[in-house]
Design goal:
This protein is an alpha+beta fold. It is built from 21 helices and 15 strands.
């Protein structure tokens, strides 16, 4: 027989109404947001069932004989402390939820390993904390936990302990786990096909369902499917029932008589007649049962068409609002937490609804950046969608005020708006996956990376970082990798371009002209090889030749000595630069391009390249043009 038993619990929402009155801390479950809660009262028992996940609204199973009155007093203090964290909250509520959840996992480990004084005082907490870090390090070394994940667990526990015991430098003298950038995974940029597929469905649901609601269209209502689908029908019919639509990939089940949706023809957008229903049931249902099913479907259809605020319309409207939210994030580059917490005011509604408005800005607080205020702007193209969303928002709220731009509706009370959490986007993608199992998963972080990738290709990186409201370092490390498909295309094009640049020894280009680094096939007509290139094609400067479509080089000794001499001079001028970063900024990309070209020449005649490279770099036998350039720099005492 198990030693663990259920117990009576009571869920209390944070922050507490009366923090001084907590009579039975062992019964308390703290509610953070929506369905997120932590069974803090279970910590009053030193032995708890840590193998099973507790069901919602239920407490963890405990050994009732392990109740500790001293621990109960400590938990009472802990509950008050957590409530105070909410009162003076400087981070988002989901961040607090994560931090406190990690701390409770830490206390679970402490009780399982004999550190029962972890909540008693600072000394007990520090002793347990040191042991916990060693435990995390062991998990990392065995490959059971990632280094940066372990560091997050550790850091959250450290912050909590320092605040709980009012102690500074809780990590003093402890060899902490350090986060390492090498383990950070950059956010992948979704392919253009993936973006198009998801945005196609977003447009289908937002515009189609908002038409059902705002234009008071009757059920059944047809939505226009995205263009990429190869289904026989181009329409998706919406009905006022639990299974509100069906696609060719949906599962069909007509065996259960109690399922009312079998009366709906999801392909034709109508109600089946009795003969068709009888065929669907294979003749096993009675005429009375078929009449009841069909009558129920007709009655529900009539009710939903008579009542423009029917619950099925509100449910679909709420879904349209969420799909618009994904479109909004794709357009602005906001992260999900910022979008969920965007404030609302009547002045904002007036500004958006103004027929003359072409742009609209939104401000949010970035808690991870020390409460920095960030600003995003909606452009001209997206304004019509935003104005349509405002009308949908007004309909769903039905005259009520709500302090956030985006919201959800309570399942039990559709007239009551509630805040949204970032996890809704995972549920949205799950809904799309039911309709089209082949659709890729593109979440807000990927949309943010896609926005950054688009900006990097159209403006300079510092400008892109300012638009995205993050640092240049973050832009480089997290959001500037490009999609896998675009990387493959670019690398293929680049290598193909390099092969075209290098000519065989005997190749002659009509109208070409020798230059300081090779040959120009069309003098004074520079064409940059890539619109996003940081170095433009330029006939007046040698480095501009390497990024010009007209540039060529023969795989012979003469042209090889030219580019090696150019590289030699560039390296000699490195000391003139104020710093290594400055030199890299001016010449890094040029030298990398030169090395790629040189490798193609080396592939064709490695012995010749090796010999000329030694003569230039070791013996100083430069091409005459670059030898004069180098002597001039020496005479000017720049070298």
């Amino acid at each position: 027989m198990s030693q663990y038993h259920p117990r009576s619990v009571e869920e209390i929402q944070l922050p507490l109404v009366d923090r001084d009155h907590i009579p039975s801390p062992e019964r308390v479950i703290l509610g953070y947001w929506k369905s997120h809660s932590i069974d803090i009262g279970a910590l009053c028992y030193l032995r708890r069932d840590m193998t099973k996940k507790r069901p919602p609204k239920h407490g963890r199973r405990v050994d009732v004989h392990s109740y500790d009155a001293t621990r109960a007093d400590q938990v009472r203090r802990l509950i008050r402390f957590i409530s105070d964290c909410f009162t003076c909250m400087t981070v988002r509520v989901n961040t607090l939820d994560t931090q406190h959840r990690h701390f409770c996992q830490f206390v679970d480990w402490c009780d399982a390993n004999g550190y029962f004084n972890v909540l008693a005082n600072e000394a007990g907490g520090r002793l347990a904390f040191v042991a916990y870090i060693h435990h995390l390090k062991d998990l990392v070394s065995m490959g059971q936990l990632g280094n940066n994940t372990a560091a997050s667990y550790q850091n959250n526990c450290q912050k909590f302990l320092e605040l709980f015991f009012d102690a500074e430098y809780f990590d003093h003298g402890i060899n902490m786990i350090r986060k390492r950038e090498i383990f950070d995974t950059p956010v992948p940029v979704p392919s253009e096909d993936a973006q198009g597929m998801v945005m196609g469905w977003c447009n289908t649901f937002f515009y189609g369902i908002s038409g059902l609601i705002l234009e008071a269209s009757p059920y059944p209502h047809a939505l226009t499917l995205p263009d990429y689908l190869d289904w026989s029908s181009r329409e998706l019919w919406v009905f006022p029932c639990n299974q509100w639509c069906r696609t060719p990939t949906s599962e069909h089940n007509y065996k259960k008589v109690e399922l009312d949706y079998v009366a709906y023809d999801y392909e034709g957008g109508r109600i089946y007649d009795l003969c068709e229903l009888n065929e669907l049931y294979g003749g096993v249902a009675t005429e009375h049962q078929l009449n009841r099913i069909r009558s129920r479907a007709l009655w529900l259809l009539d009710q939903a068409n008579r009542n423009l605020r029917h619950r099925t319309r509100l449910h679909r409207g709420q879904m349209a609002l969420r799909f618009f939210m994904l479109m909004f994030i794709a357009a602005t580059g906001m992260n999900s937490a910022q979008a969920c917490s965007l404030p609302w005011c009547p002045e904002l509604e007036d500004a958006i609804s103004n027929p003359g408005s072409e742009r609209q800005g939104f401000r949010s607080i970035k808690y991870r950046a020390n409460n920095k205020v960030v600003f995003f702007e909606i452009g001209v193209k997206f304004m019509p969608s935003l104005k349509r969303f405002i009308k949908l928002r007004q309909f769903l709220l039905n005259g009520k005020e709500f302090s956030y731009l985006f919201f959800g509706l309570q399942r039990s009370n559709l007239d009551n708006p509630v805040p949204l959490s970032p996890e809704i986007f995972s549920r949205l993608m799950a809904e799309l996956h039911k309709l089209d199992p082949k659709i890729p998963k593109v979440l807000p972080r990927e949309w943010r990376a896609a926005k950054q990738n688009h900006l990097v290709r159209t403006v300079e990186l510092p400008v892109a970082a300012r638009v995205m409201q993050h640092s240049l370092n973050t832009a480089l490390k997290k959001y500037s990798n490009g999609s896998e498909a675009s990387q493959q295309v670019e690398i293929s094009n680049f290598l193909s371009n390099v092969e075209q640049v290098v000519l065989n020894k005997s190749t002659v280009f009509p109208g070409s002209q020798a230059c300081s680094v090779g040959v120009c096939s069309s003098p004074n007509h520079p064409v940059t090889i890539n619109a996003s290139s940081s170095v433009p094609a330029n006939c007046k400067e040698a480095e501009g030749c390497f990024f010009c479509k007209q540039y060529r080089i023969h795989a012979d000794e003469t042209d090889t000595r030219k580019i090696l001499s150019f590289r030699h001079c560039i390296r000699k001028t490195a000391r003139i630069a104020g710093s290594l970063e400055q030199f890299e900024r001016f010449f890094g990309v040029v030298l990398r391009r030169l090395d790629f070209i040189l490798e193609e020449v080396r592939r064709r005649d490695a012995d010749m390249v090796g010999r000329v490279e030694h003569e230039v770099d070791a013996q100083g036998e430069l091409d005459p043009y670059w030898a004069v350039k180098l002597d001039t720099l020496i005479e000017l005492e720049l070298l």
